[in-house]
DNA sequence: AAGAGTATTGTTAACGTGTGCATAGATGTG
DNA sequence: CACATCTATGCACACGTTAACAATACTCTT
């Protein structure tokens, strides 16, 4: 069928062992023998059988890239950037195997033999069982995007607190003093972090935020819309609103227009996430960008480091977010 | 280290051959023996070593999903839908290996041993070499999204001509008679197909499209913007414009607003592709949706059929597009 | 010139699984 | 009861590769 090292051995008049060593550039083999064997291998268009290699070397050349879900809810842009980032690091060193965690009925088949390492892009606490399963099996692992404190697990994510701080600071620097907040979904760590960052900014600049300027949200269009309606019904309306994600910001903007006012002329709005549509809506959205691609690059890089040096680094890495300034915020001159 | 069939054999007091047969549910083995072995296997938490299996069975359990590029230009939504579609069919039968074709420096490593089948989501003629390499190696292959006539290759794509026809027909049915066209990038098959479909619709309903109502485009924002400006400078402006993709439609809409007119009140606009942002822009875009997810499902399904029945079907399958009606088109009452 | 050391290659077994053939026992048949 | 047939299992090898150990030839030292 296909060419094996034994075929090459015959033609070269050596043992298959010598061929194996030659092709792996072992120092044991004479340089000219190597060269002769390489030439024959090329002529025959030899490709090693990776299954055989895997069997004896006890590694799979596979890198798992697992998402919380492929079928429900992962946003396309998020997904795309994550794969791009990881792929740019992995390239041809490993095969990139993409999976949705919710496609697994049992983690039974996830073993050290089938994955040299695994990258989990986690978007939910529900990923905890698989994280523990993988950690317990001793497979090198990095969890991206969500804080995790299982021992022996690398963790790379964006510093959302700091991102929200900058967003808040930006509004203040634009002259805003009456700043409201639409919070994220209760119970989500991201919601807490974003709120904390915002509060720290307000504290830092000595801006006080009355209770009426704080409303809970659910991270969806609807809740942003409703919250903004409430702000608009106040006697003293805020001049700027920080929404804990872009979708709520969109809903909020809609509410402003419906009330006959304008963004950013009458009210400025800031979002969080820099979702794909953020640049396309009118007005385009000023928002905080989580560096997903960079996170996945960094994560893949560190995982590779762990694998190849047989380490078990287990740090948590926070990457800085970026404030994307677009049209939805206007400086306040008053 | 990890549990093998030999370990199970010892515990069960049989040969490893019997264990192998039992776990593969061979009819040669007595039912009660099977059951006994299964129980032991479960207790030991046995997982077969797929590398060993692959070696002897001569199959990899790998399914390749190749994109023209991961790093430049593939749109996130497109990418996401393709993976979703394929994944929903593949699930746990194969590992899904995602690759960018432009990451390959040599196709040398793409062999029958390493991929049981390959799905190419093709966005460019440049993919031809890899398609031929795979076909020549005899690896089961399906090419999605782009017409291909290499022999022995399955081909699933959307019927863009028909999609454009419906878009055109829709405008006519809304009462429009002065309909203009912004074409796609010259040389792209999609550009030709979309134009053909549009023309067929106009012919079908007896609408004539003067030369001044046809302008070339480059599939980008800029060219859509420019073309619309030209239409607006005409004495007799069109009442509707069909843009061969969404980005150009966006540029066109921008031009309309800049001239002080409104979409859809003064001019209706239709796009093509249903890009992620189509639903979020203002006004939201009426457009033609290519069923990428369905295409990839259908493609994966047929590829699987070929692999499992050892067939070499080589048909071309066209799937219907869908007209997504949103806000950018207004009926004309005159 | 003999022994030690070194450079290069070969022999053999191993990784974990599946399968063709042989075998032993059970069952049927005339 | 002798022989054929069938059922359930085991033996031995194969898949393609790497690696520990063995073997050979050559060089150097004294």
UniProtKB/TrEMBL annotation, chains A, B:
Q: Gene3D superfamilies, from UniProt? A: 3.40.50.2300, lambda repressor-like DNA-binding domains (1.10.260.40)
Residue ranges of every copy of the HTH lacI-type domain listed in the record: 3-57
- PROSITE patterns given in the database record: HTH_LACI_1, HTH_LACI_2
- What InterPro entries does the annotation carry? HTH_LacI (IPR000843), LacI/GalR-like_sensor (IPR046335), Lambda_DNA-bd_dom_sf (IPR010982), Peripla_BP_I (IPR028082)
Q: Which UniProt keywords apply?
A: DNA-binding, Repressor, Transcription, Transcription regulation
The reply on keyword DNA-binding is: yes
Q: Which domain of life is it from?
A: Bacteria
Put simply, this protein is called: LacI family transcriptional regulator
Cite the source lineage.
Answer: Bacteria, Bacillati, Bacillota, Bacilli, Bacillales
């Amino acid at each position: 069928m296909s060419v094996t090292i034994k075929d090459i051995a015959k033609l070269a008049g050596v043992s298959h062992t010598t061929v194996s060593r030659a092709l792996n550039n072992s120092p044991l083999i004479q340089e000219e023998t190597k060269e002769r064997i390489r030439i024959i291998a090329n002529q025959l268009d030899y490709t090693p059988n990776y299954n055989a290699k895997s069997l004896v070397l006890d590694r799979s050349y596979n890198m798992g890239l697992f998402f919380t879900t492929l079928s429900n809810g992962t946003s396309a842009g998020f997904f795309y950037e994550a794969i791009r980032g990881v792929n740019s690091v992995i390239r041809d060193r490993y095969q990139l195997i993409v999976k949705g965690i919710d496609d697994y009925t049992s983690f039974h088949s996830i073993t050290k033999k089938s994955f040299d390492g695994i990258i989990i892009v986690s978007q939910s606490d529900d990923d905890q069982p698989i994280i523990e399963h993988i950690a317990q099996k001793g497979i090198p692992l990095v969890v991206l995007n969500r804080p995790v404190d299982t021992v022996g697990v690398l963790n790379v994510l964006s510093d959302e607190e700091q991102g929200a701080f900058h967003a808040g600071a930006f509004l203040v620097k634009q002259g805003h003093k009456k700043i409201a907040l639409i919070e994220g979904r209760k119970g989500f760590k991201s919601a807490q972090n974003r709120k904390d960052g915002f509060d720290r900014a307000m504290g830092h600049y000595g801006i006080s935020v009355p209770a009426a300027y704080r409303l809970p949200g659910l991270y969806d269009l609807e809740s942003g819309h409703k919250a903004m309606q409430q702000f608009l019904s106040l006697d003293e309306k805020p001049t700027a609103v920080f929404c804990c994600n872009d979708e709520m910001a969109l809903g909020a903007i809609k509410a402003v227009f419906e009330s006959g006012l304008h963004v950013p002329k009458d009210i400025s709005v800031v979002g969080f996430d820099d979702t794909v549509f953020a640049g396309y809506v009118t007005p385009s959205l000023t928002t905080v960008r989580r560096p997903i691609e960079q996170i996945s690059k960094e994560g893949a890089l560190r995982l590779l480091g762990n694998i190849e040096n047989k380490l078990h680094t287990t740090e948590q890495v926070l990457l800085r977010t970026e404030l994307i300034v677009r049209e939805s915020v206007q400086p306040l001159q008053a």
